[in-house]
Amino acid sequence: MNTAVLNLAADSSGQVSEGLGYGVTALYIVAFSLFIYGLMGLTGPKTAVRGNWIAATGMGIAVIATLLGVYNNAGDAGVPGINWVLIVLGLAVGVALGIPPALKTKMTAMPQLVALFNGVGGGTVALIAWAEYIESDGFTAIAETPDVHVIVGSLFAAIVGSVSFWGSLVAFAKLQELLNKNLEKKLVAAAKGFQFANIVLAIAAIAIAIYIGVSADSADATPWFWIVLLLVIAGVMGLFVVFPIGGADMPVVISLLNALTGLSAAAAGLALNNQAMIVAGMIVGASGSILTNLMAKAMNRSIPAIVFGSFGGGDEGGPGGMSAAGGTVKATSAADAAIQMAYANQVIVVPGYGLAVAQAQHAVKEMAALLEAKGVEVKYAIHPVAGRMPGHMNVLLAEADVEYDAMKEMDDINGEFNRTDVAIVIGANDVTNPAARNDPSSPIHGMPILNVDEARSTIVLKRSMSSGYAGIENPLFFAEGTSMLFGDAKKSVDSVIEELKAL
């Protein structure tokens, strides 16, 4: 009788285990569907917030499914149970370090936050690979052919995750302007030296990875320092890849590092046999790769040229308002700018990073409302790489409740500049530089730009005559129809607002 009861209990346990396994699979399918649906929402400003919440819900479901899967398999040969203390501790640390910066970070610093969070993801993947190496005793415990994917996935994740982590830290430091300007110029100038070093480091990393993988067939574990050496070499390579890349290319670099983090996460998921990490990593890797390619095209530069070429040393341009070619700038006042715009039929606002730095988006919205009340049509021209990350200007303007329909992408707005009375450029440099279209010797020649120079009149708001990311002079500032309104962008717009109210 006791034997019968035990057999019945075993059968019942097996049915529960199998049923829970099907439930885990179903939860993963729901999570993956929410990932994809949420990503679709990120294609437009109107649905972006909702898309984020949908994808976050999917990730929450994936975490629950993973914990249920581990609980279901606990007790099987080689499968450890759940250490709830470590899980709760990890969640607490993640919440404490993640939520406060996300809530307090200003939109001007959002690219830095994205770079930092992306780097943390890559570093986590590298640590997972290290843990897998230690747990499997140098991969010797899983060296049979069926588990080769664990070894390959772990080593790939170790290299790419470490590159992404350290490269993202450099991107963060550059965006946060933590690096000395002279040092940054020297790093950009030493691009060829870094390229050679990276080739050597890449060969060394691949050789060590092959050695670790081949050694897994032996009875003795590979000494632990080999995996540490692999992580260190990959980390140095991540530093050396981003060090010489200039500010003009930094938005593309952020996107590229994001794609690398996704690919490394997918590789780690392959090693851990975790479907959530595989699918989420591939989605991030694929979308990041597509975005990187689109942004490179928007700059008319190939990805290898961005990674290995590097330009953007922060040259200050001609002194005292004088261009290298001898042209001079024409300064204007808030009163004159207000009069020009108040009597225009159409005004196009061209936002750039200067708008973000000055936090002038709300003032710009108020200025536009005053102009529209006077019968002036106001539109916003958005360049794909304006700001320091994709969609930076869209998010800033949306924060100020600018209508989504008023934000026009470059291809949609460029045909309207030649029938626009006034174009007002707020802190944008390289994306309005006509040298990209007219000067074959320019480093940005061929880069698609906003045709601001075709407007009847152009007003440029800038603090000084310093150049943009690319470190080159902008002939637009010295053009016949251009006038400069110097000063902090928000204060300048506020002054224009007061003048508009007085008209």
Averaging pLDDT over every residue, what do you get? 82
The main pleated sheet reads as: 6 strands, parallel
Order of helices and strands: HHHHHHHHHHHHEHHEHEHEHEEH
Radius of gyration of CA atoms, rounded to a whole number? 27 Å
Structural class: alpha/beta
Alpha-carbon distance between the two ends:
99 Å
Q: List the domain count as a whole number.
A: 3
Give a short overview:
Helix content is 61%, strand content 6%. With 503 residues, the chain is α/β, with parallel strands linked by helices.
Provide a descriptive summary of the structure in words.
The chain crosses the membrane at residues 20-40, 52-70, 82-101, 113-131, 151-173, 194-212, 224-245, 252-272, 278-296. One of its GO terms (cellular component) is plasma membrane. Pfam families: PNTB. Residues 25-498 form the NADP transhydrogenase beta-like domain. Belongs to the PNT beta subunit family. The chain is α/β, with parallel strands linked by helices and 503 residues long. It folds into 3 domains: 17-104; 109-313, no CATH class; 319-502, Rossmann fold (3-Layer(aba) Sandwich), CATH 3.40.50.1220. It is built from 18 helices and 6 strands. The chain has helices spanning 2-41, 45-73, 84-104, 110-135, 148-175, 181-189, 191-215, 225-242, 250-272, 275-298, 303-308, 334-342, 353-358, 361-373, 392-399, 410-413, 435-438, 489-502, and strands spanning 346-351, 377-382, 407-409, 422-426, 457-462, 482-486. A 6-stranded parallel sheet has the order 3-2-1-4-5-6. The protein is globular and about 80 Å long. The N and C termini lie far apart (99 Å). 46% of the residues are buried. Residues 1-16 and 312-326 have low confidence and may be disordered.
